[in-house]
Amino acid sequence: MYVPHESHAARRLHATSAPDCWCYNPELRNAAIPKILTFSGQMTTIRLKENEPFEVALRRFKRTIEKNGLLPELRAREFYEKPTAARKRKKAAAEKRHYKRIRSQMLPKKLY
């Protein structure tokens, strides 16, 4: 944090006394932490069985990650998505669900 009229020592003090969080404002420091910075789950691990080949263990690990649903989330967070693009994607998904629900409630076509 640079303040034009502070001495170099004062600036260094600010840098070293900064908290290990993303917010310098003490009122907001304990506010809701963004979800991406929190980790509430347990890390996915597997234990190697005796005389188990690496390929088999890797396959088991990949299967475990797929079951946990981590892969789609990681792919979604791989690149930044603009808020407008996220809204557009969510709206398209909602429309798709809506039309799918309507189609499932319709009577089947007459086959005569």
Describe it for me?
There is one protein chain. The longest helix is centred in the last third of the chain and has 23 residues, at 83-105. This protein is mainly alpha-helical and 112 residues long. The model is unreliable at 12-19 and 34-39 (pLDDT under 50). The protein is 53% helix and 0% strand.
Give me a quick take on this structure:
The chain has 112 residues and is mostly helical.
Features:
5 helices; 112 residues; mainly alpha; 53% helix
* Mean pLDDT rating: 76
The shape is flat
As a percent range, the share of strand residues is: under 5%
Number of strands: 0
Radius of gyration computed on alpha carbons: 25 Å
Domain unit count: 1
Quaternary state reads single chain
Query: What is the percent of helical residues?
Result: 40-55%
Largest sheet: none
| Count of helical stretches | 5
Straight-line N-to-C gap:
77 Å
Q: What pattern of helices and strands is seen along the backbone? A: HHHHH
Q: Helix/strand-derived class?
A: mainly alpha
List the uncertain runs. 12-19, 34-39
